[in-house]
Write a structure and sequence with these properties.
10 helices; Farnesyl Diphosphate Synthase; mainly alpha
């Protein structure tokens, strides 16, 4: 998300509303992390290093989960994920797959994506955008970023003693990055 902010800051041609959506989505994950930090001292005592590791774990898990949510909005099973495919596009949300397609796609592909997002992602816009996401490898790229965030989350747990709780946290990191619903 930081890269997206930098790209927009360098003068990319996107309405501020699109950038606000990306920043807002990333902020939701960050706010969840900070709520967890309020509870951590009660659970961890004065172990600041472990607290920091768990805060970073939460940030990485949240990011992996959000990225996969973005991917599933284009490639998931609507019944399994509990929402219609293309809902984010219909709501005009700029997600990582779209950002990646804009970064590596042709100018015409970029125009198609911008029109779809600015126009609220009408149903007729979904198929052309989906084709662009496939052609640019944007969904595969986003899946790899989610997997990377899951790996980073797991690395944050390296200092925890083996326990059922630590194992559950590892499983959550894997689920967040590999989920299909």
């Amino acid at each position: 998300m930081r890269q997206a902010r930098q790209r927009f800051a360098r003068g990319a041609r996107f309405p501020p509303r699109l950038l606000a959506g990306v920043v807002e989505r990333a902020g939701r994950v960050d706010r969840l992390d900070h709520r967890g930090q309020l509870v951590a001292p009660a659970v961890l005592g004065d172990d600041v290093a472990r607290e920091d590791a768990l805060a970073n774990y939460g940030r990485h898990v949240g990011t992996a989960f959000q990225i996969m949510d973005d991917v599933l909005d284009y490639s998931g099973d609507a019944t399994a994920i509990g929402k219609n495919l293309g809902d984010d596009l219909a709501e005009g949300k700029m997600t990582l797959p779209l950002i990646r397609a804009l970064a590596v796609g042709s100018p015409a592909a970029g125009d198609t994506i911008r029109r779809a997002v600015e126009g609220g992602g009408r149903l007729v816009d979904f198929a052309p955008v989906m084709r662009i996401l496939e052609e640019t490898g944007a969904l595969a790229y986003a899946r790899e970023r989610a997997a990377e965030e899951g790996r980073k989350a797991a690395e944050c747990l390296a200092g925890l003693p083996p326990s059922p709780h630590a194992q559950s946290l590892l499983q959550l990191a894997t689920f967040a990055a590999d989920r299909t619903y």
